[in-house]
């Protein structure tokens, strides 16, 4: 009986020794993590609305089905030479599907096809496919060094802007929930919860039309260096078509900056764009890569590649995206 008592006492004592340091370390680790969380930069833009999750999932499934059946044709080709090909990517088709079907219209079996630039699933417009790894590397470098001028056109819903031309400079990164968000420009370089960093992004916007009325071009440019959440008036219902010139190439850059300016792109539910509007439903955001201006990666000749505008960008409101 005495022996059992001693063993029982030893067991309790041993458990105390093993348990106390464990909880002490866990508490310290939690305190350190909590302290670190307090020093993460806070996103400026709001998170995606709850409704966007189901809508985006359905859109992704529909795009996967559409992409599996997609075949590139000569009608999609905007420009082609022995080194590269520019095509007009349709809305709702993944870039990989376009690349995969490139050999169907190019007879040269020695070509090694690569994407020089990428577009979001629901963004249509100019996409470049190179025919060799060497040319792809040159073009990717040119995109990275901002030597290629890009222009997009977007249809937005919001209050008529009090500017005609504006440049937005901000930070860009993933929040702790994994969504892309706008961050303050001063936060560029700071670490985020997942271990990535806030990176810079800059976009210039020009108003093309408001409620179907074209606006005059303006040389005066407003500049916003994002420091805090934008103070916006009540949400408007104006149709604002803008042309965007992204200097950097961050994921969802134009969509995020439109949201920040209070003119989210129509159909862009992830960034608070109108899904149901004036009795109609809009599947996918209305953003189009209309033009790329570049020096040819082999010949150095200047090239301007334009994609035809979708009907929503030509004031044809009879179309549904």
UniProtKB/TrEMBL annotation:
<dbReference type="GO" id="GO:0009982">
    <property type="term" value="F:pseudouridine synthase activity"/>
</dbReference>
<dbReference type="InterPro" id="IPR050188">
    <property type="entry name" value="RluA_PseudoU_synthase"/>
</dbReference>
<dbReference type="GO" id="GO:0000455">
    <property type="term" value="P:enzyme-directed rRNA pseudouridine synthesis"/>
</dbReference>
<dbReference type="Pfam" id="PF00849">
    <property type="entry name" value="PseudoU_synth_2"/>
</dbReference>
<dbReference type="GO" id="GO:0003723">
    <property type="term" value="F:RNA binding"/>
</dbReference>
<feature type="domain" description="Pseudouridine synthase RsuA/RluA-like">
    <location>
        <begin position="84"/>
        <end position="259"/>
    </location>
</feature>
<dbReference type="InterPro" id="IPR020103">
    <property type="entry name" value="PsdUridine_synth_cat_dom_sf"/>
</dbReference>
<protein>
    <submittedName>
        <fullName>Pseudouridine synthase family protein</fullName>
    </submittedName>
</protein>
<dbReference type="GO" id="GO:0009507">
    <property type="term" value="C:chloroplast"/>
</dbReference>
<dbReference type="InterPro" id="IPR006145">
    <property type="entry name" value="PsdUridine_synth_RsuA/RluA"/>
</dbReference>
<dbReference type="InterPro" id="IPR006224">
    <property type="entry name" value="PsdUridine_synth_RluA-like_CS"/>
</dbReference>
